[in-house]
Amino acid sequence: MKTVMEGSHAVAEAVKLARVQVISAYPITPQTHIVERLSEYCADGSLDAKFLRVESEHSAMAALIGASSTGVRTFTATSSQGLALMHELLHWASGARLPIVMAEVNRAMAPGWNIWTDQTDSLSQRDTGWVQIYCEDGQEALDRTLQAFKLAESVNLPAMVILDAFFLSHTYEPVDIPDQAKVDEFLPPYEPKFLLDPGNPCAFNQLAPPDVYMEMRFSIQTAMESAIGVLEKIQNDFSEIFDRSYGSIEPVECDDADIILVTSGTVTSTCREVIKKLRSDGEKVGLLKISLFRPFPGEAVRKVLSRTRKVAVVDRNCSFGSGGIFAQEIRSALCNVPDHPLVYGYVAGLGGRDITPELLEDIYWQTKNTDFPELDSFWMGIREVKDGIICSGS
Amino acid sequence: MKNSNRSNMCVPLLIPRSYKTSEENKTGSWRFLRPRYLEKTAPCSSVCPVGQDIPRIQMLTVQGSFKEAWELLLSENPFPGTCGRVCFHPCESACNRLEFDEAVAIRMIERFLADTATRYELQPRLNKLAKKGKKVAIIGSGPGGLSAAYFLALLGYSCDVFESSNKPGGMLRWAIPFYRLPLKVLEEEIARIESLGVRIFCNHHVEFEKFKHLRSNYDAIFVSCGYQKGRRLNIPGEESPGVEDGLTFLRELKSDPSSPSLHGSVAVIGGGNTAIDVARSVLRCGAKPVIVYRRRKEDMRAFGEEIKMALDEGVRIEELKSPLKIEKKESGVILTLQKMKVAGIDESGRAAIEPDNTDPEIVSYDRVFVAIGTEPSEPWYVCDSCSGKDIKLYNSVMRFDGQFPVIFGGDLTTEAKTVTNAIASGKEAAMALDVLFRIGKDFVLPEISRCRVGNGLSVSMEIYLNGERKNRVSHVVSYAEINTDYFNLIPRTPQPRLLREERINSFSEIDLKISGSVAMKEAGRCFNCGICNHCDNCYLFCPEIAVKRQDSEEGGLRAINYDYCKGCGLCVVECPRNAMVLEEESA
After folding, report:
1. Whose CA, among A55, A107, B181, B262, lies 20 to 30 Å from A7?
2. What residue spans of chain A are helical by DSSP H?
3. Does an H or E element contain B37, and which?
4. Is A335 on the interface with B (CB under 8 A)?
5. Residue B513's pLDDT is what?
6. A204 to B6: CB separation less than 8 angstroms, yes or no
């Protein structure tokens, strides 16, 4: 039966259903509703987990690294500056091969202070060795959280389930909450491959000199790569039990498309409507939703995009001095394909600015009407502002 | 696309993991700085005339170890009930907490501990040493004489105290009004001293002939007969009826509990504690007291708090007025007062005064009390100059009559003439005599110096007896050396008192009791400067788990395992109370 709930609470339900054992978090908008709900579950006993209150996100992650090392299922949630504060420990969690799961609610980085959605926070952490899955709606947020635990524990890598601020975290939608029994079938208790055990004392993660370090990194890389296939299998298992299916990517009307729009997160829902309209107008347009960003499903992406002429990537993020980060990934995935399509990068909707159907249509028409992408990224809807501070050279 | 070099390769999960104990890595070899537990001196202890171990007393109080805290008080001072009421508490003025919010109410806690012991009829465990087979005569049973007797008795000497009046206690009994020090408190403290075998002979005035006689029966004499005699104004009319000595008035008031009835306007000449005590007593007897003082209010020798309470109660102070003469009239006296003016500030910070050139003021009063200071009652008591043969100590002077040792103490030798200073001199005299008898004259000064608390004039019996306190260094902990991150702002607990209306109509004690929980809360405000109170910050912060806790009953200091201590210094920085030091490792 479906229940109307916030995206944040859908994540909290998933964490409860996953029978997480240790939660540690520090509140930050727009993530707070997730851990707030979980703390209530811990307090009323409906979730038998230890909730560790800490003084910072850095400590929250440190606490989970300790907890996860003892072989228990762990969870945290954060956003923006909070995630940035965790940065050092994100590397630690993956290097220590701990399957910690985090809900990351995309929020713009300050300054200027901005609590609205923007993917730059999570994408800044792309090289930390965390699995990253971007969600489109409340149901996906719930389902992906369950999948994230299974994936993380299978490949021994931490995983982030990523939600757009407000558009997803605070929006009420009907969400199907699965039966506990079914979740237990899908996600049995965590069986750690190694753990801190006083009965068998050992030290973890001490000095690794040059003659061993590189193999450890190689082990992370191969685990990451294997995660693509593992997730595919997990998604299959998931759809058998819950009758809902997801892929690492999802192509929509791509088979005969001349132009394919690439999106992630909630923009995808808007784009689905735009595609329908353009198709009804006779435009040969398709949509590629990217859910799995790390590891990047390059092979699947190539399979979909190689056949088209132009690719328009919508990035709600920016790597300053380069451009949209999804666009970079798409370009590098395609660059060795003979006669690969042209890749048009668009930066839009930063800091929570709305990405409307009209804006997505503009992107389509601009891509169609431009023979060659002159810029690495084209910034959509930039207004001219005259009363700023004028710097020489700008 | 897959990277080529892994298609047929098994890549296991790899993390650094070691089954060797990390104890093999003796990280202590990296150290070039060495942290060490080193207890220091708290500023309160350093300025306390008797050198009380105040930070430790507060620590024990917080722990609810009231008996132990009381015994600690008794190890340095036989009069905690008295000092907990009448001491001028220089400790509170020196308290490091003063810079943070407000000083800890140290005196209030001392009184609480003493009263609690009395209330539960606790018997202290006092460490009485074996008999030494020597006898000491003590002249005067004030705080100085009785303290000397108490400590000498504990050190194994027999003591006989000779008191000229009919009851022991000196100024404690005869001068301090009941509203500040109830008789019961004093009598209990004297009884405890007597219980050690000290004999007190009252109505035994020791004049010079008697003194010479004592020499043949005792091995030493301690002279602490105080300043008994009120100083005189040396102005015309001083002998008139209606002009009386303030100290005598207090003495009469205390010997006859039914207070005399006074009326009208009463002048009290003077600016010391006696003047304040007289004025407040006069008020309680039904008259209107006016203190006439030749300098300014802020120059008065009386304790500030006493002056403030006197003013609260309705005592008037006429400052910058000096009496020129006194004349008797039919019902009362006429006082001729010269108005004075400030002519600079003297070395002690008090106003230097001179007559201003106005005409003298003539005021009539019903009675006049003179309380301008005291002096020894017999000339041979005076010990104001030291000859080369004398051993001048911090609070007392050891003089030799041939080979016979005589020590002067109390008001006769102390710089500040207070109860607590007198106690300090008695304790110091006991220690000095013990040194003299045990190891000889040449060791007196070095031994007493060894027992100094911090850099002040006080000496500690615990240090003398080689207690743990001797390991503390004399460095006085400053506010800057306290890690105030570990303390919250908490207002000082106010001393509960009788209402003004209740105060002025009786001689009932003004300061009221506090409860154990209030005392514990107040003692909890103490920084415990320089001493380890087992807060275990060092243990919690040590990254190498190199701090060892010894959970013995006595507590004791924590210890550092130098095999693993890297010398990072975290423990020293996180010690809230400067009970540690970080030193360069010796090569």
Report:
1. A55
2. 7-17, 32-44, 57-69, 80-95, 120-123, 138-155, 180-186, 210-242, 267-280, 298-305, 325-334, 357-369
3. strand B33-37
4. no
5. 94
6. no
Position B555 scores a pLDDT of: 53
Q: What is the pLDDT, as a whole number, of residue B7?
A: 57
Instruction: Tell if the CB–CB gap between A204 and B17 is shorter than 8 Å.
Output: yes
Tell whether domain B135-228+377-470 is in CATH 3.20.20.140.
Answer: no
Structural domain boundaries of chain B? Answer: 24-39+532-584, 49-125+475-523, 135-228+377-470, 248-371
Please report which confidence band the pLDDT of residue B146 belongs to, taking 50, 70 and 90 as the band edges.
Answer: very high
- On whether the CB atoms of residues A116 and A107 are closer than 8 A, the answer is yes
Residue B521 CB partners (closer than 8 Å, separation 6+): B493
Of the residues A157, A206, A220, the best mutation for testing chain B's interface (the one with the most B CB atoms within 10 Å of its CB) is: A206
State whether residue B44 is helix, strand or coil.
helix
Q: Do A151 and A267 reside in the same domain of the chain?
A: no
Q: Which of A210, A242, A274 is the last residue in one of the domains? A: A242
Report how far residue B263's alpha carbon sits from residue B253's, in angstroms, rounded to the nearest whole number. 15
Which pLDDT tens digit goes with each residue over B394-432? 999 999 988 999 999 988 888 888 999 999 999 999 999
pLDDT tier at A393 (50, 70, 90 boundaries)? low
CATH number of B49-125+475-523, picked from 1.10.3470, 1.10.1060, 3.30.70, 1.10.10: 1.10.1060
Q: Which residue has the tokens 């994230």?
A: A148
Measured CB to CB, residues of chain B less than 8 Å from chain A are 1-3, 6, 11-22
What are the pLDDT digits (tens) for B340-370? 999 888 888 888 889 988 889 999 999 999 9
pLDDT for the residue numbered A78 = 98
pLDDT value of residue B365: 93
Query: What is the rounded average pLDDT of the residues B358-387?
Result: 82
Q: How far is B578 from chain A (nearest CA, A)?
A: 27
Helix (H, G, I), strand (E, B) or coil at B180: coil
Tokens 């370090």: give the residue: A213
Q: Fold identical between B24-39+532-584 and B49-125+475-523? A: no
Q: B11 to chain A: which residues are within 8 Å by CB?
A: 218-219, 222-223
pLDDT of residue B4 exceeding 50: no
User: Which residues from A are below 8 Å from B13, CB to CB?
Assistant: 97, 156, 193-194, 219, 223
Domain match, A26 and A75 both: yes
Spell out the residues 6+ positions from residue A81 whose beta carbon is closer than 8 angstroms to its own.
A28, A109, A110, A121
Residues A254 and A230 in one domain: no
Burial (CB count within 10 angstroms: exposed 0-12, middle 13-18, buried 19+), residue B138: buried
Which of A18-22, A348-352, B20-24, B362-366 is predicted with the least confidence, judged by mean pLDDT?
B20-24
Which span out of A59-63, B19-23, B543-547 was modeled with the highest average pLDDT?
A59-63
Class of domain B248-371: alpha beta
Q: Could you read off the pLDDT of B302-354 as tens digits, one per residue?
A: 989 899 999 999 999 999 999 999 998 888 899 999 999 998 888 888 888 89
Indicate the CATH number for domain B24-39+532-584. 3.30.70.20
**pLDDT at residue B1 above 50?**
no
Buried b (16+ CB within 10 A) or exposed e, B296-335: bbebbbbbeebbebbeebebebbbbbbbbbbeeeeebbbb
Confidence band, pLDDT 50/70/90 cuts, at residue A57: very high
Query: Which residues form the domain of A306?
Result: 249-390
Q: Is B178 exposed, middle or buried (0-12, 13-18, 19+ CB in 10 A)?
A: buried
Q: Is A193 on the interface with B (CB under 8 A)?
A: yes
A214, A242, A270 - which closes a domain? A242
Task: Say which CATH number the domain at A258 has.
Answer: 3.40.50.920
Sign of the four-CA dihedral A363, A364, A369, A371: positive
